[in-house]
Amino acid sequence: MRIAFFVSIIFQILIIYFWQEAKFLTLVNVIILIVVIIRYAKADYYNKYQSDVKTGLLQTAYFENSVLTEKDMGHLPELVREYLRFTGSVGKFKVNNFKIEFTGKIRKNEQSDWMPFTSRQYNFMQTPTRLFFMQAVMKNLPVAGYHCFKNGSASMDIRLLSLFKVQYQDGPEMDLSETVTFFNDMCCLAPATLIDKRIKWLTVEGSKVKASFTNNHITVSAWLYFNEEGALINFISQDRYSADAGKQLPWATPLKDYQQINGYKLMQNAETIYSYPDKDLCYGTFRLISVKYNCQDTD
Question: What parts of the sequence cross the membrane (predicted)?
Answer without folding.
Answer: 24-41
